[in-house]
Design a protein that fits this description.
The chain has 9 helices and 5 strands. By secondary structure, it is α/β, with parallel strands linked by helices. The protein is about 50% helix and about 10% strand. The chain folds into 2 domains: about 35 residues, no CATH class; about 200 residues, P-loop containing nucleotide triphosphate hydrolases (Rossmann fold), CATH 3.40.50. The protein has a 5-stranded parallel beta sheet, sandwiched between helices. The N and C termini lie far apart (about 45 Å).
């Protein structure tokens, strides 16, 4: 006779065939997915799109991939929908494009914020269309693949106005110390030239200003946000996103907020 948690896990496995279950879960309860996480997934079966917003270097991409893996959803980034000057530091095999360096060298922080927010305004119709396409059925009546979409372009004011069904949203945050450490580590700030450091510092200033504006909107609209600092693991953060999504009664909003 199977123990109750194991039996419950197998029942969930049978009812959710779309998830990427590990092979062992058919014979034991030691599945990659914890029982608690799978239980929440079962409770949010109606959700087809999970939106994860936040400023640069807050951990959106990593957490989004973990959430998508838990749900068996596709994971995409709004960055892939249209180009805008990205991170102004060298990485192995990639130099900073001239136009990117000039973008951060020539504009003030206020101008950089205006530039990126204007870009997101232009991008929004494509984002909204993508969300809508994943919350409806195909012509044959089959449900399309679920989606975890992450990106800074998921601006709170526009997301809060969504009326698409089966959609949830959460914003990730981190304090200034965490964001500075991540940007400096990614750009190898201690090994960079003075000019390279100046570009990184400008990018960091834009990142912090963007988050301040985003947080003002998130809190004013009573939207859900999760702090990624304090050494929290990716698994812990993914669980927190799933818990938050499971509670929401409207896009981005939990009843307790």
């Amino acid at each position: 006779m199977l123990a109750r948690p194991r039996r419950a896990l197998l029942d969930l496995r049978a009812s959710l065939p779309g998830l990427d279950w590990c092979a062992a879960s058919s014979a034991c309860a030691d599945c990659t997915h914890s029982f608690a996480v799978i239980s929440r997934v079962a409770g949010m079966r109606g959700v087809r799109v999970v939106l994860i917003g936040g400023t640069s270097n807050v951990g959106k991409s990593t957490v989004a991939r973990a959430v998508a893996d838990s749900l068996g959803f596709e994971c995409l980034s709004t960055d892939a929908l249209a180009r805008h000057p990205g991170r102004p530091w060298r990485t192995p095999g990639r130099e900073v494009p001239t136009h990117v360096a000039e973008h951060y060298r020539s504009l003030t922080v206020d101008e950089l914020i205006t530039s990126v927010l204007d870009h997101y305004v232009r991008l929004w119709p494509r984002i909204e269309g993508l969300i809508t396409s994943r919350t409806t059925t195909s012509g044959a009546g089959a449900t399309v693949a679920g989606l975890v979409l992450e990106g800074s372009a998921l601006w709170p004011v526009r997301v809060a106005q969504l009326v698409t069904p089966h959609t949830a949203a959460v914003w990730l945050t981190a304090d200034e110390t965490v964001l500075r450490a991540r940007v400096h580590a990614a750009g190898r700030h201690d090994q960079a030239s003075p000019e390279e450091r100046a570009l990184m510092d400008t990018f960091l200033s834009r990142t912090l200003r963007f988050q301040a504006l985003m947080l003002e909107a998130v809190d004013r609209l009573d939207l859900d946000r999760i702090d990624t600092g304090s050494g929290r693991s990716v698994e812990n953060l993914a669980d927190a996103v799933l818990e938050t999504v499971d509670r929401q009664h409207a896009v981005g909003r939990s009843p307790t907020r």
